């Protein structure tokens, strides 16, 4: 995920936080990367 500029904490509970200036398209891109990561 870091290679895709998505930083995630490595604790047992995952919490994704964005800045206010993140667009819906950027959120959709992160969601797609997250789904791909979980499918590995």
What class, by secondary structure content? mainly alpha
The unreliable regions are: none
Question: Based on CA inertia axes, which overall geometry fits?
Answer: globular
Number of helices: 1
Cα separation of the termini: 12 Å
Number of strands: 0
* Percent range of helical residues: 40-55%
Beta-strand residue fraction:
under 5%
Could you tell me the radius of gyration in angstroms? 10 Å
Largest sheet composition: none
Overall pLDDT: 85
> H/E series, N to C?
H
Structural features, described:
The radius of gyration is 10 Å and the shape is globular. The protein is mostly helical and 40 residues long. The chain has a domain of 26 residues.
Topology, please?
Layout: H1 24-39
Please outline what is shown here.
Its EC number is 4.1.2.48, 4.1.2.5. It comes from Escherichia coli. The chain has about 40 residues and is an all-alpha fold.
Give a quick set of tags describing it.
40 residues, mainly alpha, 1 helix, lyase
């Amino acid at each position: 995920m870091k290679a895709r500029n998505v930083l995630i904490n490595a604790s047992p509970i995952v919490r994704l936080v964005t800045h206010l200036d993140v667009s819906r398209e950027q959120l959709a891109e992160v969601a797609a990367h997250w789904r791909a990561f979980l499918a590995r």
